Amino acid sequence: MRVARVRDACQRGIELTVRPVFQPIVELASGRIQAYEALSRLTDDKGSVVRPDDAFAAAEAGGYAAALDVLAIRAIASEAVRRLPPGARLFVNVSPATLLTCRHALKPLQPLADRVVLEITERRPIGRDEEQKFLRTLDALRSIGYRLAIDDLGDGYASLGRMLTLRPEYVKLGQSLVGDVEADPRRMAMVGSMVHFGARSGTTLVAEGIETQACYETLRGLGVELGQGYLFARPSPEFGGGGPPGGGGWGPGPGGAGAPGEGDDGRQER
Ligand code: C2E
Ligand code: MG
Ligand code: MG
User: Fold this and answer.
1) For the chain, which residues make up each domain, given as ranges?
2) Strand stretches in the chain, DSSP E
3) What is the SS3 assignment for 185?
4) Cβ–ligand 1 contact at 236 (below 6 Å)
5) 27-81 pLDDT, tens digit each
6) How far is the CA of 139 from the centre of ligand 2 (A)?
7) Can you tell me which atom of ligand 1 is nearest the CA of 262?
8) What tens digit of pLDDT does each residue of 180-226 get?
9) What is the pLDDT of residue 162?
10) Atom 8, ligand 1: residue with shortest CA distance
11) Per CATH, which fold does 3-227 belong to?
12) In this structure, which residues have their CB less than 5 angstroms from ion ligand 2?
């Protein structure tokens, strides 16, 4: 497995090792794998695991998001260009700061551009003066084949208004909308209205963090098209995962929640 290293100079003067893992995104109606989300796993120079959320948030706050994204994308592309299964798309997280200041970070993904969906997470709002440049950049990326997703709708700064300005091909519903949806009529109503919006606007919905059969069945019943979560498969260095839809359920077994992957703390089990 190739690794990439970045010097986390702004924070602690340590070196980070970055390694990609991939989590399947399945069509809820059929159970077929349509795509994989690439996620980075980081360790420091003592071999301790660094939480991705913390690392990418710190990078953005410290002004070195692009440096970390460059390393992550290089590591992801070195695996995906060779091994992404035919027909599957690849969802790749990227910070707005990287798109604004360092578009060449995406270069290693260029051979896959028309299969890549760039997931944009806004951890803080983009300044007004940069908004037009940001929108022009997204248009330029679309013109060379990339598609766009808003990540974590319902969490943080991923607001409804962003779906109007960014016109993403995909919207990912975050944990705050998906978690316990089966037990909460208001969440159900909100997800249902997003399904309606998606159908009217040509936006594909992806529900994140599906952990239980009840959650899966509720989202499928509401008409959400795609989903990902531990119920189907945990992120893994391999492009694997998947399992039977409905019927026998996704429980433990090949590709199910008990399949080889990683523990809750992000460490690999193998
Ligand atoms: P995200 O992009 O929203 O990724 C989804 C997170 O949910 C991942 O956490 C994934 O492992 C986790 N997850 C997947 N299924 C389930 C589930 O069923 N239940 C629960 N509770 N969690 C689930 P992870 O890998 O720790 O990443 C956290 C965040 O760090 C990501 O959130 C993303 O914002 C950021 N990140 C990770 N890798 C990269 C990267 O390569 N580039 C950038 N820019 N950000 C990254
Ligand atoms: Mg994401
Ligand atoms: Mg997300």
Assistant:
1) 3-227
2) 4-8, 14-27, 33-43, 49-50, 89-94, 116-120, 147-153, 170-173, 204-207, 226-227
3) helix
4) no
5) 999 999 999 999 999 998 888 999 999 899 888 888 888 989 999 999 999 999 9
6) 20
7) 11
8) 999 999 999 999 999 999 999 999 999 999 999 999 999 999 999 99
9) 86
10) 39
11) TIM Barrel (3.20.20)
12) 93, 119, 151
